[in-house]
Structure formats: C-alpha cells, structure tokens
Specification:
Helix content is 42%, strand content 0%. It is mainly alpha-helical. It contains 3 helices and no strands. The longest helix has 17 residues. The termini are far apart.
Length: 78
C-alpha cells in the first residue's frame, strides 16, 4: 500500500481593505442644501480645512471674511 500524500489546506483569501472614500469635489458640495446663513458658515468651516485651502471657491470666502473684518475693525483697512 502506498503512503498518502499530506493534504494541505488552500490558503484563506485575505479581503482587500476598502479604499477610503474620495474627497469631496468642492467645499460648496459639502454645504449643499443649507440656507443662506448656514451655507456661509459651512463654507468658512470647509475652507479652513487643509484639503480646500487652495480651492478657488475659498478665495471668495476669504475675501468676504476680510471685508467683514474690516467693517468690524476699520483700523485694519489698508
């Protein structure tokens, strides 16, 4: 009688980690569906995040923040 060859188990497949969700396309997309005031506050918060600092929509937000600050503190105006 011949000796049986040892049976090896098939390796268990390791599930691939799920990729992270894609970053939002624009800060305004993150703020969709809000009213006027909430949209402005949301845009300020979104533009403070590193991923949106250089986004073109944030240029207008920063400009408006400067204008508002100069109205509150006239000595800051150039």
């Amino acid at each position: 009688m011949a000796a049986a060859a040892p049976v090896t188990a098939a390796p268990t497949p390791v599930p691939a980690p799920e990729p992270p969700p894609p970053p939002p396309a624009a800060p305004q997309a993150e703020c969709a569906g809000r009213n006027f005031i909430a949209m402005a506050q949301c845009m300020v918060n979104q533009c403070a995040k590193a991923e949106f600092k250089s986004h073109p929509q944030c240029d207008a937000v920063r400009k408006q923040q400067r204008i508002d600050e100069e109205k509150r503190n006239p000595s800051m105006a150039n």
